[in-house]
Amino acid sequence: MSLVPQGAGRAHSVQVPVPRALARASSLLVPALLAAIDRLDPSLQGPVRHHLAGGGKHVRAGLVLVGAAAVGGRDEEAVPGAVAVELVHNYSLLHDDIIDRDRERRHLPAVWAQFGEGVAIVAGDALSALATKVLLDTPTSRSVEAARRLADANFQMISGQSADMAFEARTQVSVEECLAMERAKTGALLSAACAIGAVLGGADGRAADALGTYGEHLGIAFQAVDDLLGVWGDPSTTGKPVGADLLARKKALPVAVAFERGGEAAEELAAILSHAPEAGDVARATLLMERAGVRDAVAAIADEHLHEALEALERVHLEAKPKEELVEIARYVTARDR
Amino acid sequence: MSLVPQGAGRAHSVQVPVPRALARASSLLVPALLAAIDRLDPSLQGPVRHHLAGGGKHVRAGLVLVGAAAVGGRDEEAVPGAVAVELVHNYSLLHDDIIDRDRERRHLPAVWAQFGEGVAIVAGDALSALATKVLLDTPTSRSVEAARRLADANFQMISGQSADMAFEARTQVSVEECLAMERAKTGALLSAACAIGAVLGGADGRAADALGTYGEHLGIAFQAVDDLLGVWGDPSTTGKPVGADLLARKKALPVAVAFERGGEAAEELAAILSHAPEAGDVARATLLMERAGVRDAVAAIADEHLHEALEALERVHLEAKPKEELVEIARYVTARDR
Q1: Which DSSP category does A313 fall into?
Q2: What pLDDT, on the 0 to 100 scale, is given for residue B309?
Q3: What's the average model confidence in pLDDT over A86-112?
Q4: Given an 8 Å threshold on Cβ–Cβ distance, is B155 in contact with A121?
């Protein structure tokens, strides 16, 4: 899922300004990403370029590049990692949109909706394979370690995606299960982005792991905020209908927290989610959760993981300016007014 | 696509006996493959086990193991490669069945038909990521080279699959384009299987490349035979309807050869394929191609590539017994009476 959907020419009222480090990352990433895309079969280049035309803030590429800088690495060492991580992220978007039947991505038609499901499946597969190729075509000990971490994150991301889908059919999901799912689905790739940047920048395992811990908690915090917005977000900024997650019967954090709190609210919520909910049900469920303090509880989970992310940055020596940028990025991607 | 679909308890009249080397490969592969599957998220294990329950002859695993033996390597060195290659092959089957809307695989319901498209997409993604993990979890110079070759083959395979899909919408495809597509779609992974076996078995680059050349031509020869059976195959052994490829307007070798020969047959064939063909059209097209000598021409292409595959085995020193097994496997997978 896009961290901060960027409209093609559409105005947004994001309060927290886009960190400079991300704008810089985009300017380094995009030419390299497009060069990688040129290696695709001609039949896939159109659909993939269409997909990328929607933009995106390239948070993961930013984490790779700033991660490398934080351990004293140079941009050119980290760019292949940024490309590889963005390729994995974008393959997951291509496939997720098919699975979720989302017809729009970044205010453009999703690839499956525009070019057909088969093309979207194969385009995703191609980006996934290309990500590994980018790191292994001329293997060095650093790029191999980056490829190993990326394969691991890809695998965890898919496990999390599958768990998320399996939750939809279940009546109960614990907060612990939900957090484990979100750690895998979102945290693993953000963690790998930071660690890969550090590895390519020449860090030792300890610094790479500390940056990975920052990324993992940042991913969970981001996902918790995303879950909040999935229930209480403003459709004009999220680009999704009111209560989108409840309509899809997703067992994201708000529902898991409500269940764990128990009582009448949990019972009524369970009844609402036991069948395909309608708009009225969604409004009622949202009110129940608000009254039960679920909104504040999920916000507290987000804050807790943001705090843990920032704490991880204190455990190793990092260059001052990139470290500041990592803090800025963390505040940006966990902002609640997007 | 499965080289030789094996029914769950269903009798087949394959004339060429299954080479012993393949049976032996299966006995080494299956426990290791199931152990790898245990690492999947619980939500994916059922669907993937269902998919694998259909069997298969494990030709690719056989090529990895015999490839290793041919350069003096040991089975235990090659098993991770066999697992990784079979994982990539099976992820492609999971996704291909969705794309082609094939509801059956190895006489069992396809995963997408049984568990839903989303599950089949994600299960394929998980197997693809797991394949890389199997080779990179404890990287050695050999396993890294194997992972590099596998990523490359995966990428080529997807490019070929995409080209194949793009051909369906085109009116003309040259034999050269068709062969390039089949080299990528089928030849690349068979080539990688052989080369990865050689690499893991300790071969130098030259021996690995020679075995890779054997696998590539074997893949094209196999695909040419598959194309023949797609038009002239017996539905009771292929498990597909008569003229399945023509019904799907696939521009496989027979159609490309017919176009290249030109004349009235090509014109009529083009007219038939310009709209969605029905059973009567298929019968007519088949007859036209038979009369124009297309069947023999495609068989000659298969023979030529089988010959080139076997010749590649003469270019480097290989152990006698595995070399014989590679010849036997080549004859087996290009047999026309399956």
Answers
A1: T
A2: 98
A3: 95
A4: no
Provide the CB-side half-sphere exposure for B104 (13 A, CA).
Answer: 11
Q: Is A108 left (phi over 0), alpha (psi -120 to 50) or beta?
A: beta
A64 contacts A200 by C-beta, under 8 angstroms: yes
Task: Inform me whether the pLDDT recorded for B15 exceeds 90.
Answer: no
Domain ranges of chain B: 20-329
Count of positions (residues) in chain B? 338
Determine phi and psi for A128, rounding to 5 degrees: -65, -45
d(CA A175, CA A267): 16
Question: What CA–CA distances, in Å, run from B160 to B172, B178, B183?
Answer: 17, 9, 8
Report the predicted TM-score, pTM, of the whole model to 2 decimal places.
Answer: 0.93
Q: What is the distance between the alpha carbons of residues B148 and B217, in angstroms, rounded to a whole number?
A: 21
The CA dihedral of B148, B149, B155, B158, to the nearest 10 degrees, is -150
Q: Do the Cβ atoms of A129 and B162 come within 8 Å?
A: no
CATH superfamily of A20-333: Farnesyl Diphosphate Synthase (1.10.600.10)
- Between A95, A139, A160, which is nearest B144 by CB? A139
A181 to chain B, minimum CA–CA distance in Å?
10
CATH of B20-329, one of 1.20.120.680, 3.30.565.10, 1.10.600.10, 1.10.10.10: 1.10.600.10
- For B133-155, the pLDDT digits (tens) are 999 999 999 999 999 999 999 99
Residues B137, A129: C-beta atoms closer than 8 Å = no
- Residue type at B322? P
CA-closest candidate to residue A154, choices A176, A125, A175: A125
Of B110, B133, B128, the residue nearest B51 (C-alpha): B110
Give per-residue pLDDT as tens, B231-241: 998 887 777 77
**Residues of chain B positioned with their CB less than 8 A from the CB of A129:** 128, 151, 154-155, 158
- Measured distance CA(A329)–CA(B221) in Å, rounded: 54
**Which residues from A are below 8 Å from B126, CB to CB?**
155, 158-159, 162
State the pLDDT confidence band at A144, using cuts at 50, 70 and 90: very high
Q: B171 falls in which pLDDT band (50, 70, 90)? A: confident
String of DSSP letters for A169-235: T-S---HHHHHHHHIIIIIHHHHHHHHHHHHHTT--HHHHHHHHHHHHHHHHHHHHHHHHHHHH--H
Mean per-residue pLDDT for A157-181?
94
Q: Is the Cβ pair B95, A44 closer than 8 Å? A: no
Phi, then psi, of B134 in degrees rounded to 5:
-55, -35
Q: Judge whether residue B5 has pLDDT over 70.
A: no
**Token pair of A22 as six digits:** 């991300």
- On average, the pLDDT of chain B sits at 92
Q: Name the H helices within chain A.
A: 20-37, 42-53, 59-70, 75-99, 111-115, 117-136, 141-168, 175-182, 188-200, 205-232, 235-238, 244-247, 253-261, 263-273, 279-291, 294-312, 320-333
C-alpha to C-alpha distance for B251 and B165, rounded to whole angstroms:
9
User: Least CB-CB distance to A43: which of B119, B128, B166?
Assistant: B166
Q: What is the tens place of the pLDDT at every residue in B76-99? A: 999 999 999 999 999 999 999 999
What angle, 0 to 180 degrees and rounded to 10, lies between the N-to-C axes of helices B75-100 and B42-53?
A: 90
Look at residue A196 and tell me whether its pLDDT is greater than 90. Answer: yes
Query: In Å, how far is A259's CA from the nearest CA of chain B?
Result: 22
**Which of A157, A178, A8 has its CA nearest to residue A89?**
A157
